[in-house]
Amino acid sequence: MRLLRLIATKFERMVSPLISKVLWPPVGANVVCRHEGKYLVLDTGRSYRFPGGLMNGGEHPSEAAAREFREETGLEAEIGEMICIKTLFDGITAVHFFYSASLNDGFESADGNWEGEPVLVSKEELSDEMQKVIEEVEEM
């Protein structure tokens, strides 16, 4: 499973910039979820990332955020306010919507998929780029 995650992540990082330069920038929604003083992120085996992914045609960004969060963590969340929009995040050129969220239930039932394992980490454990997004949440 870990090898599959690494291959998928590598492939996504190679393909996304090409698509955004040749065709159009992809549009995705990401979730910043704080739970019990920590942040729920996906551990890809190489780094942490916020749950999220590409939007489906006709899907509202907040709906995509809820769907991607559920698919990647196995958890339900109440999607809150949009935090920010970024055009470059984690080395990927795209339109990235970021939403705050709170868990509907506890973290105990979290279940990952090929994209990573859900974990709770402190803000200080995250990349500087992720911390900047979190700081925007804290300013709200």
**Largest beta-sheet characterization:** 7 strands, mixed
Provide a count of the helices.
3
CATH superfamily: Nucleoside Triphosphate Pyrophosphohydrolase
Named at the architecture level, the CATH assignment is: Alpha-Beta Complex
Cα-atom radius of gyration: 14 Å
Just give the CATH class: Alpha Beta
Brief descriptors of the model:
single chain, alpha+beta, Nucleoside Triphosphate Pyrophosphohydrolase, 7 strands, globular
Structure overview:
With 140 residues, the protein is α+β, with helices and mostly antiparallel strands. It has three helices and seven strands; from the N terminus they run H-E-E-E-E-H-E-E-E-H. A hairpin with a 2-residue loop joins strand 5 and strand 6.
Summarize the structure.
This protein has 140 residues and is an alpha+beta fold.
Secondary-structure blueprint:
Layout: H1 2-22, E1 27-35, E2 38-43, E3 48-49, E4 52-54, H2 61-73, E5 77-89, E6 92-103, E7 117-121, H3 128-139
